Amino acid sequence: MQTSGAQDAIWTVEAVLRWISGDFKARGIDSPRLEAELLVSLVLGCTRIQLIVDRDRPLVATELARIRELVARRRKREPVAYLTGRREFYGHEFRVDRRVLIPRPDTETLVEVALERTRDHSLFGRMLDLCTGSGNVAIAFAKERPTWHVEATDISPDALEVARMNALRLGAVWNVRFRRGDLFDAAAPRPYDLITANPPYVTLREMQEVSADVRDHEPHLALVGGEDGLDVIRRIGAQAGAHLVAGGVLALEIGCEQGDATRALLEGEGFIDVRVDRDLGGRPRVVSAVHPESGAAFDPAWD
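RE: above sequence
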């Protein structure tokens, strides 16, 4: 998409979309037309449907310049979610940037499992979300359970800044509290009815094989879980029991090949009713379990 002064061709919305789609396809980028539409609609401040309506509208020089800038960044494999600054998750639009992991559709399984396994306490309860990142799991759960008290922790102050912004935008500030710390170091002293986490679980080998979009742009702190990907999962499994009420639930997102190992790990820590749930693609994605009926009693009060 080059320009050369007065002899420039007229670039319409549709012409630009075709050009970007072809360029992205040639570079091996998945869903090239979709990504082209997302970038052009961002610049024009319109919906993708409006692009169809305005397909013959000529673009002005400032619009073309902004589009070229975004295309150049995408060619370097910067994720579209970072370019647009937003990503939909569980029916809500979250703001994201390089400070946080981009929410994935697979992680919606974690929210579904958390809701289903705590349905007996749907009115009152206390939740702790570890490794909260953008706050997507904590906030999505809080929107479904507005009478619950939700706390979320992360070791990264930058991630917590994004999470707080998302809670404010999505109207979840009154029942969601964010704390900075390494896993349970920032947890409140009272036990929880539910602990969730989407911890780092990518292995060192896998990290060398992931796409450049992930490897070169998303925060490694939120991705890499050690040699076998289970370093943080082991820590959570070993410590979670001390922070759960009797009958409390622990739910963890995992890599698709980590189901058996995580199940064995939690059973070894004394958890019962260990279950592995699959994502929409049919891959093992969430391991959840119940803390034995020998801890603190359920307490619906908030602090």
